[in-house]
Design brief:
By secondary structure, this protein is of the alpha+beta class. It has one domain. Helix content is about 35%, strand content about 35%. It is built from 3 helices and 5 strands. The strands form 2 sheets. It has a 3-stranded antiparallel β-sheet. The protein is globular, with a radius of gyration of 11 Å. The chain starts with a strand and ends with a strand.
Length: about 70
Amino acid sequence: MTTKISITTAVKILNSSKDFIFYKVENNRIVDFTLTNDISRFRARYNNKFKILDDIKKQIKTNLKIQL
């Protein structure tokens, strides 16, 4: 699934030193996300929807759409 992200979300992700992003998607847009190093803390809240941030950063550098 390809998802659009806002410029502010892209900047937050690119400037982050965290390892994982937990997210919620509605209507092909990320509506809530948390950047973290602790997987176990946020797993239940986001229903195990997470990605490794380095992979997301590579996708953002080419365009403002990411593959989730």
